[in-house]
User: Fold this.
Amino acid sequence: MKSILSVSSCGFVDDFLRIEMAVGQNVLRKEGFEKLTGAARYVDDIALEGMLFGKTIRSRIPRGRIKAITFDPDYDWSRVVIADYRDIPGENYVALIENDQPLLAETEIRHCEEPILLIAAESKHEAEFAARHIGIEYEESHPLLTIEEALNRDEIIYGSDNIFKSFLIARGDVDEGFKQADHIVTGEYRVPHQEQLYIETQGMIAIPGKDSLTVMGSMQCPYYVHKAIKQLFKLSDEQTIVIQTTTGGGFGGKEEYPSMIAAHAALLAHKAQRPVKMIYDRAEDIAATPKRHPGVIRHRTGVMSDGRLVASEIDIVFDGGAYATLSSVVLSRGAIHAQGPYRCDNVRITARAVATNTPPNGAFRGFGAPQVAFAYEMQMEKIAAELRLDPLDLRRANMLREGDITATGQRLNWSVGSEDVLNAAVERSGFVGKRRAISPNNNGSKRRGIGLSFFFHGAGFTGSGEAKMKAQAGVEITPEGRARVLSGSTEIGQGTRTIFCQIVADELGVNYDDVEIEEPDTSRVPDSGPTVASRTCMVVGRVVQLAARDAKEKLIRFVAERFGEADVKLIAGWFTARGKRLASFGETAREYANLHGDLRVYACYANPPGVEWDDDTYTGDAYPVFSYGAEVAEVEVDMDTYEVTALKITTAQDIGRAIHPTLAAGQIEGGTLQAVGYGLFEELVWERGRIVNNRLTNYIIPTSLDAPEMETIIVEKEYPHGPFGAKGVGELPMDGAAPAIASAVFNATGAFMTEIPITPERLLKALENMPAPQSVDNHDQQ
Amino acid sequence: MKITFQVNGVDREIDAPPMKRLLDVLREDLRLTGAKEGCGEGECGACSVIIDGEVINSCLAPICQMQGVKLLTVEGLSRDGRLDPLQQAFLECGAAQCGICTPGMLISARYLLDANPRPTRDEIKEAIAGNLCRCTGYVKIIDAIDRAASTIA
Amino acid sequence: MIYDPTAVTPSNLGEVYELLAERGRRAKIIAGGTDLMVALNAGSLDAKEFIDIWPLNELRGIDDEGATIRIGALTTYTQLIKSPLIQLSVPALVEASRTVGAIQIQNRGTIGGNIVNASPAGDSLPVLAAFDAEIEIGSIRGVRSMDFNRFYTGYRQTLMEPDEILLAVRLRKLKSNERSFFFKVGTRRAQAISKIVMAVKVGTTGAVIDSIGVALGSVAPTVIRARQTESLLTNSTLDATLIERARRTISQEIAPITDVRSTEHYRRTVTGNALAKVLRLLT
Assistant:
């Protein structure tokens, strides 16, 4: 444990006051113990008196109208409670951005699995049995199922042109740039849907009160659920209580969807006047809930012979599914990141999110960035190959450095660890030597390859999001002498509760063990904004820090007055002045409470000075700061089975400061493996708007035997406006593995993959379509 | 159907339909909610328990086959509120993030170490190949089992 | 009304035969449950009555019969993996068992279940086919044996009568001039259903192939023997040309489909590559 000796203002050393700094240490997690003993209560572990089980009846067709719903008279319908859209007290929509998504379908159906009816019964089996006695007759119409069909506009299913949202980001003069360029390289890249596959499926319990409604369950954003429920049930803020239970993974999949399942459970509870539990089985969860937006991304790049990028034209189309939900924000992040961490004076990025008759796509770790990162990195590979340049040199020649300007015209003023991460990953992995050692006659039955990717990720909400949100958090000093963190941010595996307590412990000057955190219950904690966008540590952690600072100042003033001392400090749980202890934190808290009542201090987020964004022109500081990453992937390709094995991944990630190094490394390792899944294994198979591989036997995520060895280097390029220098870490790891692996496959086999996942089937086809025998032309060998 | 069996060293008797899943008997009848349902098809291992010394998926075992067995669940690992060496290693190494796979992982790890007290990293990976984790990338889980093995040995 | 399925647990084989004679048409036999319970959980199994045979030790045991080995139907994959007899005399069966699911499944899945479940992707089935296994089936009417390679009549269809139960499977041990190989490509390295699965049993004298059995799963509605390819290879001298011809023959001989896991083209190509790889190991 690091410790610092306190030094009094007179220069004497108080050697009995050792401060154990919590930040930067691998303290024991606040939420750790119960998860190891089986005592942690996830929503399905909770049983309440009189509880009913809810089930959703969903559309079997992708597009059309409901003609009739029949209830088989052979079933005794008094045994269950049925709810439909007519039972909704408020308006039939789930509050989000555009509010176009109904809670329950009325007559129009826009996607398979669209929820129509709800059933509550005494047991899950009864609910399923009853469900089999409901018949729904549809009148089908022609669905649009792909991006191409949406853009062709054979049918209009949204607005006037099937487009939810479009963006244009422009800088400089691309036409001029292309004229100047020595070479022009074009590429088209396709990225698929991806399922978050949290191991705990979606679940909620709703409890009707006299004038209130309580919802508890698996979620990332209690206040999103709160907002949706309030509107649907015409309740006030206080009448609506939302509580997050221990959540078994979210990854964005529990950002917006929980509002839907919570409201479903609540509607049944409201009608039955009994608590209702709703838990999805895996098949329903995969079939019906939001996925990562699939897309097509086209690049046209003007390059000088020495590798400098002089013009970049990028077109992005994402498939948003049937309702707008979060597509505008995913598209926004995708567009802003589309140029990659590379300088280019002339950029034109066009982006569109289109509507299709498939379940709405939504949040998944990375939120638009992994999609465009695959594209921009493969485009860099292509440029290197076509121009016969070294891929590493190409990155170095163009990488953004401190002081550079991005595609949205943002000057990178601080915390730019771009060069640091690239150097670290390259050096630690032995990239250069290993690359050179790959023989051009690499034609055995097992071929090795090594590849590189370089990426960045803006932390916090895009543009003016954080400024508008004004995230709130607080610190309470309890009469028992403990500090309690008050925040609506949630723990979903990443260690929120722990890092907030570390931040408060060090900011206040008390022991980590004396800090606790309030339960994520909307009646007890303020709205800190959603637990998404890599903002929890950097943005909310900062607000928590400011609240702690404010609380400390109040207590210091209190002690100063009490003892008539001028220069009071709070160190290691003791108030001191002139080298002498005055009072303990605990005593002081009790005294304060007796005299002044509860000490509760709130702070709210404001962007650092100078951070400006223009929503109309889409220019300015897209994020207060970016995190940077570099990744080296080593693969082995079996030329008999075309299986790609990811052997090892070395990654360096600049996250500003690791508040808890083990938790930070855990985020990087976990995100990296999800990205390996994105690049090699995970594919949803569709038939007429329905997912047919919605079970774990057929939706393939990596097991321990599929996971590569990982070496993680944390680079700390401190961000002056983050808590103790920290910026975002949650999503950055999702951006690098897929292109690094594709780059390694290219190195190993000469097959340039423009579509992921790189399944053996896809690789076989690519190898067969390659021109003639392996020649050096297909490689970037120097 | 009445079934008597031993759960975490304690004799228990339950009355349940014969084809009720062991997982549901544990979670509903015995209120031992450590074992989780992640898939209902024996793919994720979150429901893993040890019966008569063998690790199985409790979502695939009907209660009628459990007459007289000795069962170990995650709740049976710690004694007197103290973590056992495996659990302690998981805590120290950061092997649990969201924690939902953790009970199953601990059970599979326990099964491994009971048979093979000094496993190689490859043997550890094999032992948990039937336990899916989405949070950790498996790195710290393997580290923790490795550390526990050295501690116990 | 909602039902809970019933189950009876007979205490010996005789009781099983009686139960099957009485209700074999509607009751399902359950052993380790690794297939049946998946279907029951998913709501795709319509059975209301089960016959639980898990405690029947009469159906367990791996017996050395000299030239042959008799494996009881309730033998689990773990038991096969750990058996020194199987390791020595039918090593391909150990390899196959190791690729089934993961440890939790291997501890409960049985070879009998794999056989009667009749999936074309069953991992042990190509080994049994390549080894010309014999299966023993019992009922109240007596015990009969049958050639494993005639057992399947179509997709998930077998020659079992409703009143019958699988008792055991019998294989010839490898002779001194024989070797066996097992090859599976799954969707990942564990918990994987096969995209292609192959077993080869081959006897050689020098470079000449005296006898060869090549069996494949996941490329047809049932497990199959690649008879044309076997014909080509039998009594032939193994060299690079023959290996190439064998690769082409087997690719053309099979009729795989494109499904949720893989494509027809991939299956054809990789089956050929797999055979070529195995044959190269012999040279």
